[in-house]
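[step 3/7] fold_predict: job queued, chain A
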Amino acid sequence: MRTKAFLLAIAVALQGCAASQSSFYANPAKQNVSSLCRAVEKSGDPQFSRDLVAELISRGVTVEECRTTIRRENTILAGVAIAGAAVAVGVAAVMVMT
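[step 4/7] structure written:
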């Protein structure tokens, strides 16, 4: 059961990393670079995208740095998910053997 909760948490983490419009407009400076990059990538609202890019530029972050950040985080999260799955298989194997 703990393994399922762990995998669910990873799935939520993979999807919940982008800044929302309401949180961004409430306090743009409070948002971290990763959240801003992911929001730009996911946004379907042209004005919101422009505002996100303007905030990133004001912080000296380039489009390529955003892409690199997202790739690196996705790789880390995928590794954690694979490790979690391996633990689940190990736990299941132990439970079957006992």
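[step 5/7] annotate
The helical segments are 2-15, 21-26, 33-42, 46-58, 63-97.
The first helix runs from residue 2 to 15.
exit 0
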